[in-house]
Amino acid sequence: MDNEKVYAMQFGKVYPLLVSKAQKKGRTKEEVDQIIDWLTGYTTEAMEYAVQNQVTYGDFFRNAPRLNPSRKQIKGSVCGVRVEEIAEPLMQEIRYLDKLIDELAKGKAMDQILRDSSDMPSTIEEYIRQQPEEAQPYLHQVNAAIRSALPDAVQKLSWSMPTYWKKRNLIQFAAFKKHIGLYPGPEAVEAFADKLKAYKTSKGAIQLPYNKPLPLELITEIALWCGSNTL
Hints:
The chain is of the alpha+beta class. It has 2 domains: 3-113, Helicase, Ruva Protein, domain 3 (Orthogonal Bundle), CATH 1.10.8.290; 124-228, Alpha-Beta Complex (Aspartate Aminotransferase, domain 1). 46% of the residues lie in helices and 14% in strands. It has 11 helices and 8 strands. It has helices spanning 3-8, 11-23, 29-40, 44-52, 57-62, 89-105, 110-113, 124-129, 136-149, 186-191, 216-228, and strands spanning 77-78, 81-82, 154-158, 161-165, 169-175, 179-183, 201-202, 205-209. The strands form 2 sheets. Strands 3-4-5-6-8-7 form a 6-stranded antiparallel beta sheet. The chain has a two-stranded antiparallel ribbon with strand order 1-2. It starts with a helix and ends with a helix. 29% of the residues are buried.
């Protein structure tokens, strides 16, 4: 099967196959979810959303909240090809997951499957420093805009993403290859729908491409709205 056909498959059809492969060998759906969470940053709820909303397999990985830096430690063969030698980045991400599920099905312990994460950032500033150099100025600007709007919010990493928290996650952001993902929640995206017409949005998420000036005033406005709607 060529790459484009793999990318076009629905995650909702692939995911049950991954779970079934693990369960046939006495492993659990929860372990599969833990592996996907570790690798991509998706919560179980986000995986279920992807299943229900016909997200393609390619988009599932393209829009991953946080690809784990430790995934580069994954070595070995899948379908006769060594994952560390796959040249096409998106296919390599997909094969990383295949390799981890193979290890699960072969009885490997979870603490061995989930590679050392000691290099994972613990603060927002550390997160930004670990991103590609060209993305860092954009991340600093987004972070400054949110911080100015939410000075009393706790700054932390949640699901491996920079997060502003006050009784709940108010707003999050993350770096991707071609854009910054801003995550203020579904209600905020709906409330600002008219002002977000120039941007790609999905449930609870806004894509801010690097090839456009950052809408810093709008980011600040959205962050203020999130803070004012704290439960």
